[in-house]
Amino acid sequence: MRLHRVAPGIAAGIIAPALLLATPSFAATAAPTAVAVPAVPSSADDPDADDLKVAIARILADPDSGRRVTREANALLDANDPEAMRAWLETGYRLAQAEDDSVAIARTLADPDSGRRVIREANALLDANNPEAMRAWLETGYRLAQAEDDRVAIARILADPSISPALRAAANAALDDNTPEALRHFLEVGRYQVA
């Protein structure tokens, strides 16, 4: 019989990403919480190869998985080594996700449409190099920073005295709605439909 000293940690490492990634709207509706796994010394705590494959397949199914995560997850499934899968789910996934998040933030900085708040926060995140902070910002913070930058862009449009009454009404409607989606929609589509 094997000792199960690390089994709760392994189970938490497998269950937490699977639960978080299985619900894409989780980040927008609730703050992340820790997953408590009871320490029960049984063979149920030790996930078998199929459980590990399912956890990795769920990570691959997430559309937000970046290149490094995808590359490493596919290599693990091809190798079919349960110990390597277990180790990757415990530590390697976090490192791969952190690299992919850094790349996503750098791409945000390269976008010419990024506003001041997005640029300021993205630079601060890259300087701090904190994987958890980068992930949280990509899941929720970016949306909020972009919304603030969009409000400023709409206010600049409204400051132009020569805009049409229809454009002014559409801009004010977007500001009155005040959701990140409405603000972005006005700037990307709405202002061109009423101009």
From TrEMBL:
InterPro entries: DUF312_ALF. Residues 1-27 form the signal peptide. Keywords: Signal. Pfam families: ALF. This is Sel1 repeat family protein.
